[in-house]
Amino acid sequence: MYFADRDTAYADPYYGLKKLIYGNKRFSENKSINPRQTEQDLKNAELGQKPFAVIIGCADSRVPNEIIFDQGVGDLFITRTAGQVMAEASFGTIEYAAAALNTKLIVVLGHQSCGAVDAAMKLPENPPGHIVTLINAIKPASLKAKQSTNSDETKLELAVRENVLVQVEMLRNLEPLLSRKFDSGELLIVGAVYNMQSGKVEFIEETITSLPKFRNSN
Ligand SMILES: [Zn+2]
Q: What are phi and psi of 190, to 5 degrees?
């Protein structure tokens, strides 16, 4: 179940995607191999970095990215904020990975029972401090979810998913760098949701089927 080595995954984002899918499969089936996590790997200044995926995830302490995808040091370039809400600095970070590190796969990773999405569902009148930024960013997804079902539990699940879809769309249209790379097929931008009970990451089908055909430049 190892599937693709890191060089192949780095060169071709479709292999990168499969590498994440297989890594998560190992994790959810308790067969993690903990690659590149020895002391030697972690303290190796010669390693450089060629991360094959950028993960835009939630700051939630129960979603440790390397562990749930069973990857090691140098594999994943990660930004995490509550509800994986993005702002200018996150965009710059992601662009840096795409332009300078040449990472070709971006995964927006939401998760079940997300506290930030749950907070946005409650639409508090006056959220304290800068938390209002998070609430406002997630609000459109939460409103859409509220309109589509009456069940509170389903509402939260729908909002988590919708929030990921909104964020995937935002990155695909982000001028000038990501949009251009996405349109030319150099860069894949997909969405996924992590289920904390099963340990499984579900890649959202519609974000995968809507990908432009990847043109391999090698
Ligand atoms: Zn969360």
A: -125, 165
Q: How far is the CA of 137 from the centre of ligand 1 (A)?
A: 13
Non-local CB neighbours of 51 within 8 Å, separated by 6+ positions:
10, 74, 75, 76, 77, 97, 101, 103
Are 83 and 163 spatial neighbours (Cβ–Cβ below 8 Å)? yes
Q: What is the pLDDT of residues 47-74, one digit of tens each?
A: 778 999 999 999 999 999 999 999 999 9
CATH number of residue 26's parent domain: 3.40.1050.10
Per residue in 114-123, pLDDT (tens digit) is 999 999 999 8
CA of 60 to the centre of ligand 1 (A): 5
**Residue 179 domain boundaries:** 6-215
CA gap 216, 206 in Å, rounded: 22
Residue 135's alpha-carbon distances to 111, 128, 142, 165, in angstroms, are 16, 11, 9, 16
As a whole number of angstroms, the distance between CA 148 and CA 155 comes to 8
Calculate how far, in angstroms, residue 190's C-alpha sits from the geometric centre of ligand 1: 18
Nearest to 176 by CA among 85, 63, 99, 111: 99
As for how many domains the chain has, the answer is 1
| Residue 1 counted as domain residue | no
Which pTM was predicted?
0.94
